[in-house]
């Protein structure tokens, strides 16, 4: 079966960076205050990766673009139904439910790092945006930053279970595709999509990388 490139290298690098940094943040957020500087730096890193991923969703390769995987809610619901009853339609990029999960993960992680920037333990550690907060913002940030990881862990568990479900039930090698980037073309309709296999746009990479590095440098320059 012919394989085509679906997840180009920026999507794959950003995916595994998100997974590594998120895991590091969960660990450092739960140990003690001694590793809080690591928690800060990893949070800055995750925010920069997400800024880059959102920009790449606008100016990136074919299957990385939001327009490729944001579907109408009715299509998403229909797809979910076919998934439960049997083999749903095959998508080369994200299927409608997978696309929805990507958006949910990106939004939830963004709220998580954004609230972290305003957060503080009121003793030693003050997030870089702490001084710009108000009582309301400090309280809301503290509460969201404490509670959202549980929601994120549930979303990530569902994300991994969905990937494993496709691997076991439909023998789709999705994990491998997030490593080498390629997926097999399974039917003639997809054959026509071959033309549009992921090609990495140099300008898109430069825009996403430069703006996210500028964001990271600015965060780094604020004392905490
Ligand atoms: C903290 C952990 C993780 C986070 C935050 C995360 C997040 C994401 C996001 C945002 C995407 C969309 C990729 C994109 O379009 O840029 C994605 C896709 C994907 N992830 Fe993860 N992920 C995590 C862990 C994992 C793990 C451990 C696996 C492997 C078991 C995995 C396998 C995949 C696969 C195979 C896809 C592509 C699914 C498809 O083909 O539609 N992820 N993940």
From TrEMBL:
It is found in: Cell membrane. The keyword Coiled coil does not apply. This is Cytochrome b/b6 domain-containing protein. It is a multi-pass membrane protein. It comes from Rhodanobacter aciditrophus. Coiled coil: none annotated. The chain crosses the membrane at residues 12-32, 38-59, 97-118, 151-168, 203-222. It holds the Pfam family Ni_hydr_CYTB.
């Amino acid at each position: 079966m012919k394989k085509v490139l679906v997840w180009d290298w920026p999507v794959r690098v950003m995916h595994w960076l998100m997974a590594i940094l998120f895991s590091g943040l969960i660990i450092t957020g739960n140990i003690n205050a001694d590793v809080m500087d690591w928690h800060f730096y990893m949070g800055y890193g995750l925010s920069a990766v997400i800024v880059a991923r959102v920009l790449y969703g606008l100016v990136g390769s074919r299957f990385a673009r939001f327009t490729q995987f944001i579907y109408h809610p009715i299509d998403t619901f229909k797809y979910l139904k076919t998934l439960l009853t049997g083999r749903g339609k095959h998508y080369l990029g994200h299927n409608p439910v997978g696309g929805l999960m990507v958006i949910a993960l990106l939004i939830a992680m963004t709220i998580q790092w954004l609230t972290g920037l305003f957060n503080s333990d009121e003793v030693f550690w003050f997030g870089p945006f702490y001084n710009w907060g108000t009582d309301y913002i400090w309280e809301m940030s503290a509460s969201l930053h404490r509670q959202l990881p549980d929601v994120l862990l549930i979303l990530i568990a569902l994300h991994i279970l969905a990937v494993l479900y496709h691997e076991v039930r439909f023998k789709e090698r999705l994990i491998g595709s997030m490593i080498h980037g390629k997926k097999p073309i399974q039917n003639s309709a997809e054959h026509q999509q071959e033309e549009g296999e992921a090609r990495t746009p140099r300008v898109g990479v430069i825009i996403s990388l430069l703006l996210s590095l500028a964001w990271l440098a600015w965060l780094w320059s604020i004392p905490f």
